[in-house]
């Protein structure tokens, strides 16, 4: 795999970097760096700034309004976006449902929904998890009963990110009681203003409201809001989840976070004398995380540059687990650094350090929120335990195929 970039690609990088340095709203970047909570208006402003250059729908083909970039250009863009400290895109519309719409939806559905997504006129929520169907998503009970030209939706979706802002929600709904639980599921979109939809907030450990419970009581939705064939929703969901799990890596952001961690560690004293960056045990932990990020980067590039259709679900599951665990380790190091800084402030031998304590709190507060939020990354997008089951099942199938080939005398 060639990890070098061409002259044209480096010129493209400079073009992207200049945009983020000179034209992207600085107050949005500063708000993220200070750990402030974003509003819906903040996200819309960020998305519209990207779309002013045609760069919002980074993975979309040109015929649907995307830039039509190859894997390398998309990677460079995301790398520069992370380096600049730009907030993550709200993925539900741009990264999740839109590719399902332009891949499996009708022409009318594409014309109806995609322009509003591109111009940030609508926001979407993802209705997958249920109170009794989270990691085992195929066990969902949410029902859609056909009644002429409509479906009647009943049930509950939970852990629904930003449903309080959403104009639309795409749901997996059971449209038939097929013996195999992955069958009989359909992919249905509902207007959030429909009668019978109720949104109840869920406040997470970090005190932030981005999760919700969404109840549906006899909600009528036109059949034309179903994407693809009835009963094939599991297939479309897996297509979406493949894209979702690839979006977790954020390699450049992890690099920037580690660079900032090193800078802070060079300014906070160690209880053993010197600075935290010189503490052998802490330095080893930073080096270990840096090595993980390097491996993660190579893994992402390998998947992005693979021939279409050749990346297995197991490879994507491995990436999801690895990206999750790496992100969590980085937040743990920030909290350890903050704790050691507080301990140093209480040590009377370190004269004058207590006067610099506000410097510790300035990063401890937002990174405590990040630490708490990253606990959930092991669960959302398919729990890590489920990803390990996918990997194990793939290994089992490969082993069985190898045995069959050996028995048949195939080399």
Topology, pairings included?
Blueprint: H1 7-22, H2 26-33, H3 40-51, H4 71-83, H5 91-104, H6 107-118, E1 124-127, E2 143-147, E3 150-158, E4 168-174, E5 185-191, E6 197-203, E7 209-222, E8 226-227, H7 233-246, H8 251-265, H9 280-304, H10 313-346, H11 357-374, H12 384-407
Parallel strand pairs: 1-4
Antiparallel strand pairs: 2-3, 3-7, 4-5, 5-8, 6-7
Helix pairs in contact: 1-4, 4-8, 5-6, 5-7, 8-9, 8-10, 9-10, 10-11, 10-12
Characterise this structure.
The chain has three domains: 7-89, no CATH class; 124-231, Beta Barrel (Butyryl-CoA Dehydrogenase, subunit A, domain 2); 248-401, Butyryl-CoA Dehydrogenase, subunit A, domain 3. A hairpin with a 2-residue loop joins β2 and β3. It has twelve helices and eight strands. The protein has helices spanning 7-22, 26-33, 40-51, 71-83, 91-104, 107-118, 233-246, 251-265, 280-304, 313-346, 357-374, 384-407; strands at 124-127, 143-147, 150-158, 168-174, 185-191, 197-203, 209-222, 226-227. α8 (251-265) packs parallel to α10 (313-346) and α10 (313-346) runs antiparallel to α12. The model has no long low-confidence stretch (mean pLDDT 87).
């Amino acid at each position: 795999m060639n990890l070098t970039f061409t002259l044209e690609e480096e010129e493209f990088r400079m073009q992207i970097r200049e945009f983020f340095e000179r034209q992207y709203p600085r107050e949005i970047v500063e708000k993220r760096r200070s750990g402030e909570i974003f509003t819906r208006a903040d996200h819309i402003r960020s998305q519209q700034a990207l779309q002013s250059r045609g760069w919002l729908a980074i993975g979309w083909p040109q015929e649907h309004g995307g830039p039509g970039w190859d894997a390398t250009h998309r990677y460079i863009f995301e790398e520069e976006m992370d380096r600049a400290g730009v907030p993550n895109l709200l993925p539900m519309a741009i990264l999740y449902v839109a590719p399902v719409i332009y891949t499996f939806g009708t022409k009318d559905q594409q014309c109806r929904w995609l322009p509003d997504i591109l111009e940030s006129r609508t926001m979407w929520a993802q209705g997958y998890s249920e109170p009794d169907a989270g990691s085992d998503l195929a066990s969902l009970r949410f029902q859609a009963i056909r009644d002429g030209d409509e479906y009647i939706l009943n049930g509950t979706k939970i852990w629904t990110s930003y449903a309080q802002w959403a104009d639309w929600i795409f749901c997996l709904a059971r449209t038939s009681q097929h013996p195999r639980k992955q069958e009989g599921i359909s992919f249905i979109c509902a207007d959030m203003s429909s009668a019978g939809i109720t949104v109840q907030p869920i406040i997470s450990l970090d005190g932030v409201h981005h999760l919700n419970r969404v109840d549906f009581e006899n909600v009528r939705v036109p059949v034309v809001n179903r994407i693809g064939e009835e009963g094939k929703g599991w297939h479309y969901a897996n297509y979406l989840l493949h894209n979702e799990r690839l979006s977790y890596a954020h390699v450049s952001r992890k690099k920037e976070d580690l660079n900032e961690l090193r800078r802070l560690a060079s300014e906070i004293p160690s209880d053993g004398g010197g600075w935290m960056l010189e503490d052998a045990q802490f330095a080893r932990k930073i080096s270990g995380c840096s090595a993980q990020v390097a491996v993660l980067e190579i893994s992402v590039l390998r998947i992005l540059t693979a021939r279409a259709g050749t990346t297995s679900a197991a490879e994507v599951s491995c990436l999801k687990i690895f990206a999750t665990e790496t992100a969590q380790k980085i937040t743990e190091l920030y909290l350890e650094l903050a704790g050691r800084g507080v301990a140093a402030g209480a040590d009377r031998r370190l004269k004058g350090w207590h006067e610099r304590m506000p410097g510790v709190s300035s990063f401890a507060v937002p990174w405590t929120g990040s630490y708490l939020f990253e606990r959930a990354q092991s669960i959302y997008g398919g729990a890590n335990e489920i990803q390990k089951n996918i990997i194990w099942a793939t290994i089992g199938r490969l082993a069985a195929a190898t045995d069959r080939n050996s028995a048949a005398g195939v080399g």
